[in-house]
What does this fold into?
Amino acid sequence: MKKLTKIRSTAIPLPIEDVDTDQIIPARFLKALTREGFGENLFRDWRYNSDGSEVKDFVLNNRMYSGEILVAGNNFGCGSSREHAAWSLDDYGFRIVISSFFADIFKGNALNNGLLPIQITPDELQQVFKAIEENVKVEFQVNLENQTLEIVGSDKLFSFEVSTYKKMCLLNGYDDIDYLLSQRDRIEEFESQQLIY
Amino acid sequence: MSKTLFDKLWDAHIVDSIDGVDVIYIDQHFIHEVTSPQAFDGLKKRGISVFRTQKTLATADHNVPTINQHLPIIEPMSRAQVKKLTDNCREFDVELYELGHEKNGIVHIIGPELGITKPGMTIVCGDSHTSTHGAFGSIAFGIGTSQVEQTLATQCILMNRPNTMRITIEGELSKGVFAKDIILYIISKLTAAGGTGYFIEYAGSTIRSLSMEARMTICNMSIEMGARGGLIAPDEVTYAYLKGKERVPKGDNWDNAKSYWQTLFSDTNAMFDREEKFYAKDISPMVTFGTNPGMGIKIDDLIPEINNVASFDKSLAYMGLKKGESLLGQKIQHVFIGSCTNARIEDLRIVAEYVSGKKKSNEVSVMIVPGSKQVEAQAKQEGLDKIFIEAGFELREPGCSACLGMNEDKIPSGEYCISTSNRNFEGRQGPGARTILASPLMAAAAAVSGKIEDVRLLID
Ligand code: SF4
It folds into this structure.
């Protein structure tokens, strides 16, 4: 997994609530056998018309906006467990998603792929949207070590939660599986004591 | 100390803890073709095997055609994905019910029907509706592909203990009201995000009165309010369903298992992080009008007039519906009866009973997709297939089908589909498709008249 420590970037606003995983990556694009290339179809049906042309007013098609940070409305990532949603955001080039609320499975999937979900309060989220509205080039500074999100050039500094364990993984680029594999003996011992029916 | 059922089961599966995150042992892992290829690739890259092959079962369901399953799959990418599953299962020695196998079907339908799903277990699958298996008093939830890989490699995953919520429903259901209506009603009250962070236990006399299949419908949709999963304490209904099933213990082992299962309930004074209570008498047949399952109303209610919420307006615009409108009489062009929510034999019986001797409207296409080969066989044995065919329904072979629109079974853009599945997201059933979620009986009634009906007025 890629390490994530500090990121300074402009952001792309998507002020829509309940963005579900079928919007992030529609099911018909889940036929791939590898993890790569999903970015092309990120938000496919919002980004492209059925004839393949770009939907002009969708934010990813607006060249004014760019950056490694996506800012989305409440309850981002609800719906299916497809990790393809995290892969497509990552493949497109996002390292961070900011929202006031994330769906559970999406959050876990994102963290397992070095994509940091930053949950801030609804009021703070509005301040972030407002900052981008006022200046599309406004930058945000994320510091994972300190768990802070700063709107650069303002006095706004928000803090966010991340589990101690996941923070350690992200800072060092560790996957859960590395840890679990190191526990195989412990797991076998557990199995030998388990009641099984 | 008093414990909730969830906490009893969770505690019994903690292998270890690290920084407040638990290493949870998984008793049963189901896999399918869509979310497993990258996980097997991970194992190959690391040069490791599947840790416990006998606790892993594979089926092809999400991306399979529902016609001509005996022939090679036409669509090349689907064919490649299904073949990849077969190859991986061979290489890693994992049991597979491949397409066409007499036990093939939607993963959440075959687990219970084979008796693999049992009380007290921890169950995961790379599919969010794994919550279905909670109906047996097990902890069952969906995981992402990284966790599929972890489970294949170690039979464990790392997870924070979720909070617990108990939803109690009391009283007797009115006629024409089913498990699907109960869960759509609950989600409409708690919203699509209302259960996030929680594991739900469903309790109360209404739940106790339900069959196992109906309980599965309830647990299945727990994820639609954001909850990690839902469970129901096992009881005599559970044991009666399980007894004699293929992979359920027999003889003395059955007695031992049953006496263990009988300890699986929330203690009287157990504390939940949150409690909600509902009454069966308040529940009517439900329909959804928007683009998430929380946007549901009773059939005789009007679409709410919520103003100044951009997402709400966007959703109604997508659906082509208006605030203050009724869905009664709304014309539909498609009916989909299927999915792990409502494609078990009881669902098919409900549909067959209503449509027996009737014909579908000429204005609609109706697709009925059994949840598994065993459900399909049972339906044929009971002669339900003839009723469906005489009614003009297309009876398909098992699979996820139009529930997620990954195969050819899609609803055309802009057209309405009443669906017994679980998600009405934009484009879920195909780009531009407009999904109205409802119970199998509501779907059957709409199939006959071509419009949304209040089933209470049509049955005695
Ligand atoms: S039927 Fe639908 S919800 Fe169920 S497993 Fe298949 S795709 Fe998922």
Summary: Chain B touches chain A through 77 residues (CB under 8 Å). The domain at 5-159 of chain B is CATH 3.30.499.10 (Aconitase; domain 3). The CA atoms of residues 198 and 253 of chain B lie 33 Å apart.
